[in-house]
Design brief:
By secondary structure, this protein is of the alpha+beta class. The chain contains 17 helices and 16 strands. It has three domains: 170 residues, no CATH class; 139 residues, Beta-Lactamase; 154 residues, Histidine kinase-like ATPase, C-terminal domain (Heat Shock Protein 90, 2-Layer Sandwich), CATH 3.30.565. A hairpin with a 2-residue loop joins strand 12 and strand 13.
């Protein structure tokens, strides 16, 4: 996680954003003034008018240079304008021009307050003195000049205080906005969609009538529109959401190549909102990725403010609520429900077969016991016993899986002789004569739960019998700090891509024709039990299919371990 961003420092210049519009307005006024003065001066052959036009042209030139360099400075523009008017007033020595010049100096002083960050009070004291000096210099020292100076000072003070009040209220509101923007717990982007608006206008001019269809048919056009988006500001939550250490790295032109195809529909929804003149839209961002390659999902809210009744695409706000965890839970739940439905169908089918045998043979023995000789009755009872064990095994695996999933599965750790447990399990399955079991060297005891160990061995042997190819072998051997049991058969190798999937719940691999579908829990339960006891169950193929159980060698003490 990146560290939290510091609180943004808000200044009047940042809040009002006044420099750029002030300079542009000044350039427009200077252009109009120069045109009027030049025209009047040429037709009237009046040098003073042409002189005034020179001042306006100088003001216009400086403003255009600042705009071209993206270094707009309202104070410089005001200073040049005031200087031009003042020089013209002094040279022209015209009464009407004096009034214009006086008004210009007053307005320049009032406007300057908007740009001041510090020493405002000092400026409010010094500037009135400057106003008085200017009037006395223009008009001379007399009662009329003093009266006009007083009026100019009062006008300046009233205007400056009013503008400062408006500026402070604007600054306060903008400060709250910026603090909300930076401190918001959800990711927020401020973006400039002006280029997108121009691009959409171009598409209309080209004859496009259905934007959605156009973008679906031409994905390159969609990415072209995305390239017109400029990211202006990003908060820390957005950087954390995308796993970026510095929000500034996200500022600048949007990079369409970083968006996967699954995330493009959300962009199409935003473009369609602009196309339809809408000022907000909510859509989902599916299967996006962070800069670290981690998948993310989000609920995107796109909103554009309105100015003079029209959407202002230069100040679009985009917020994305992280719903990755919620969607993961939803997908897991859907997958779980699907698996549960499949489990119920499979269990009911798999239990039906042995239970039908048990019920049918039991009823047959009960109704016609005297019709069977001793050997026939023993065979029927043996079949009932085998099918009952099969049902008990399925039920036991289901119980273990349920307890493991709820976190309530416990094992009792004690020293266990694995060779003895293998022999006991083979004897219980009545396949001791069918399976070759041997031990390599002197095998240490393991720290495990003997009952759970037998359950693991039984599941692996049943799996080999069901899906493998005889002969089946069991090898018990020492490993470093552990003991391993290998259950080997001559079955075909499991595809590499399925070798981990076979341990997933309800997964069924190597299905044989004519066999009842397995619940698919045996291998899952075996691995979970082994891992709870500090071991593992793995699969590999080395000419034979090999399932290996490893368990840690026993220590001096026993313990109860909860998953």
């Amino acid at each position: 996680m990146a560290p939290a961003a510091a609180s943004p420092k808000v200044s009047s210049l940042d809040i009002a954003d006044s420099h750029a519009p002030a300079v542009r307005m000044g350039a427009l006024i200077a252009a109009i003034s120069a045109a009027v003065l030049l025209t009047a001066g040429i037709f009237a052959a009046e040098p003073l008018l042409l002189l005034g036009a020179c001042g306006s042209l100088a003001w216009l030139a400086i403003s255009l240079v600042m705009i071209w360099l993206h270094r707009e400075n309202g104070l410089v523009s005001l200073a040049v304008a005031t200087l031009a008017v003042s020089v013209y007033a002094l040279i022209a020595d015209l009464h009407a021009v004096d009034r214009v010049a006086s008004l210009s100096v007053i307005l320049a002083g009032i406007a300057t307050v908007l740009f001041l960050d510090k020493r405002e009070d000092l400026f409010l004291i010094v500037y009135p003195v400057f106003l008085v000096a200017v009037h006395l210099a223009w008009v001379g020292i007399n009662v009329e000049a003093i009266a006009e100076s007083c009026i100019a000072v009062m006008a300046f003070v009233a205007g400056a205080m009013s503008l400062r009040w408006i500026r402070d209220r604007s600054q306060d509101a903008a400060s709250r906005f910026l603090n909300l923007f930076e401190k918001a717990p959800v990711s927020i982007w401020e973006e400039d969609y002006s280029g997108v608006g121009e691009w959409i206008a171009e598409l209309r001019a080209q004859g496009v009538r259905d934007l959605r269809t156009h973008l679906i048919e031409d994905p390159a056009a969609l990415r072209e529109g995305m390239s017109r988006i400029e990211v202006v500001r990003v908060n820390q939550a957005a950087a954390d959401f995308l796993e970026v250490d510095d929000p500034a790295k996200l500022v600048g032109p949007l990079k369409p190549e970083t968006f996967p195809d699954d995330a493009l529909p959300s962009m199409a929804d935003q473009f369609e909102a602009i196309w339809n003149g809408e000022d907000h839209v909510t859509t989902e961002v599916r299967q996006g990725y962070t800069t670290e390659g981690n998948p993310i999902d989000g609920l995107l809210h796109w909103a554009v403010p309105r100015r003079f009744g029209k959407p202002d695409l230069s100040r679009v706000i985009v917020s994305v609520v992280d719903v990755t965890a919620m969607n993961d839970v939803r997908r897991d739940l859907e997958k779980s429900l699907e698996s549960k439905d499949e489990l119920i169908a499979t269990v009911s089918h798999e239990l039906r077969t042995p239970l039908t045998t048990v019920v049918g043979l039991s009823a047959e023995l009960s109704d016609s016991y005297d019709d069977f000789d001793r050997d026939e009755a023993r065979d029927l009872l043996h079949m009932i016993s085998e099918q009952s064990i099969e049902v008990a095994t399925i039920v036991e695996d289901l119980l273990v899986a349920a307890r493991a999933e709820s976190g309530s599965l416990k094992v009792n750790i004690e020293p266990v002789d694995l060779h003895l447990e293998v022999k006991t399990t083979l004897r219980g399955l009545e396949i001791e004569e069918e399976v070759d079991c041997h031990t390599v060297g002197i095998v240490a005891t393991v720290a495990a739960d003997s009952g759970r160990v037998r359950q693991i061995i039984r599941n692996l042997l049943v799996n080999a019998k069901r899906y493998g190819v005889s002969p089946v072998r069991v090898i018990v051997r020492n490993e470093e700090d552990a003991v391993a049991i290998e259950v080997r058969d001559h079955g075909e190798p499991i595809p590499v891509e399925e070798r981990e999937a076979i341990f997933d719940r309800y997964y069924r691999a190597r299905q044989k024709v004519g066999l009842t579908a397995s619940v698919g829990l045996g291998l899952t339960v075996s691995r979970e039990l082994a891992r709870i006891m500090g071991g593992d169950v793995t699969y590999h193929h080395d000419g034979e299919s090999v399932f290996t159980v490893t368990l840690p060698q026993s220590g001096a003490e026993s313990a109860a371990v909860a998953s």
